[in-house]
């Protein structure tokens, strides 16, 4: 929406890599002439254009010019890079109506008190819903457009994606849990993702079991449907039994005398930061383990081993991973080696009420001070970084995380930025920068759907990334403690 002194112009844009469809509306207080210029000087081949109003192509400028005069009107323009534009227009007109109805039906919370927040909320909710796929009995959320082959759904991605759906689409959360449950091995091992044939994709992840238990707990709490725990999966185990199996496997095989999880092996990248070798005690994984133990313990009721274990895990997190000198939890400890950078995924210690009250304020101060790119003169401003400073050792990172401020090594991941903003909301802090900076960065750089990750120094990640819907969750629950058990 472009507001002018004499009215406004509204541009709705829809399309894929091969074409872009624009619907343009204007309403003025007086007659005006507006010109739209579609410039193709960067392209070798000029794309084809179709419009329902008069236009002309100026060869010298490699540009199409579309004009309209009056005080009120609508017109559409379709630009095709590969196919016939008239076919694209016919196809897109029907799709456009479906999409428009979908986003106009979204229930926008009162916290969206600016046009920017409304746009952010709508875009974030839309990216979650658009990633819900059905293939026979397989009903689940994909991760994003770059994660469709093989067709699969992730434990961690879907946990964050579904947070914004508990208020109005909780049945989709139930379907997600059922799909994930069918991909859990009989011994309780959880892969990173479950493929459409219910086999695992990249097995043995440490965070996946925790996300499964937490999603079950959240669903039971917000649906008030405790009978769900009795549902039988694969004609073998109930949901409750699977929750016990996945946590018992961690407890019995991957903990030591500290009660903390130990990520074993020199090159262990089996959690969300799967292009970083984090082994030993990893604060992120320990926080997830703590809350999942607490969730299951509360679901079962009474005194039980999961509640007892949760208390011990919380003690050890604060004893071993808190750095008093730095005022935050270190990223991970592996024997004598300590990765002391501040990692955004340690905000879980605040969200899950792990950090003691007398340390919370300094921790949140340091999150804002260190992870806001705008606070570092040597950096461009691109919102909230995943880590600062970047990883110490070259052997800690691989693939594109080997480059500073890229991927897991300091880029801005909108799903973490959304949760960061929610953490600030819960602590009564100013959250605007954390919440919106990734969104405005994307728009200013020609990316109109929520991104997987972004950095001003490298190409952006996948478009329409499902778990980047966490900003919608934050705006929905800004006055509630969603994670309270």
What report would you give on this structure?
The chain is α+β, with helices and mostly antiparallel strands and 485 residues long. Helices cover 36% and strands 20% of the residues. It has helices at residues 85-104, 115-130, 155-162, 170-181, 207-223, 239-253, 283-300, 305-321, 348-351, 357-371, 414-426, 432-444, 470-476; strands at residues 2-4, 7-16, 19-39, 48-51, 55-58, 63-80, 132-135, 138-141, 152-154, 193-195, 200-201, 232-233, 237-238, 281-282, 322-323, 328-329, 332-334, 337-339, 342-343, 387-388. Strands 1, 2, 3, 4, 5 and 6 form a six-stranded antiparallel beta sheet that branches. Helix 2 (115-130) packs across helix 13 (470-476) and helix 4 (170-181) packs antiparallel against helix 5. The longest helix has 20 residues, at 85-104. It is globular, with a radius of gyration of 24 Å. The model has no long low-confidence stretch (mean pLDDT 94).
